[in-house]
Amino acid sequence: MGSWYLTRVDVTDDVASTRRSSFSLGYYINDAKLFGVDEKGQPLYQITARRLETSEQNNHLLLEDVQIEYWPRLKISWLLTATSGEVPQNEAYLDLQGGVKLAQRLEDGTNGTIIQSEHLRLQPEAFYATTSEAVRIHLGQDQIDATGIRAYLKDNRLELESNVHGQFNP
Predict the structure, then answer these.
(1) Which among 41, 62, 126, 136 is most buried, taking Cβ atoms within 10 Å?
(2) pLDDT, one tens digit for every residue, the chain (170 residues)
(3) What is the pTM assigned to this prediction?
(4) What strand order describes the sheet that includes 157-167?
(5) Which domains does the chain have, with CATH numbers?
């Protein structure tokens, strides 16, 4: 009887420890708005996400249905949208995935240049976006396909990296 008592397994302790390990501390926010500010506390950009949650495994913020736009006073006419994104802790960039679209808004409210890709890294405070993957650029009726791009948003300047092919209508 004594050896049975010493060798038995306490199932309730295993269940309790399993429950504790399956719940992680964190939070989520629906319809989240995050603001980036400069060194003087002036707003630079706004990130809107249908859902924002923390990822305890890798200390990232996870975003769903993302939209990023710059504050009007900066006169940066680009609007960025994506299906999802990640913001690593203590980093100055966002990695965006899924139907990423970077659209230049013209003064009349219409879209100018539209850049589409499946992945894009945005450094919002540097006004810089980049990808090494396939991109499609729409310039009105014209279209350019390339692999890799560097977009300098404040300067309205794009650099295509390789495999550039375009279709231009006269």
Answers:
(1) 62
(2) 344 434 444 544 444 444 444 555 678 889 999 999 988 999 999 999 999 998 777 788 899 999 999 998 888 989 999 999 999 888 889 999 999 999 988 777 667 899 999 999 999 999 999 999 999 999 888 999 999 999 999 999 999 999 999 988 87
(3) 0.79
(4) 28-37, 43-55, 60-70, 78-88, 94-105, 111-123, 128-139, 142-152, 157-167
(5) 27-167 (2.60.450.10)
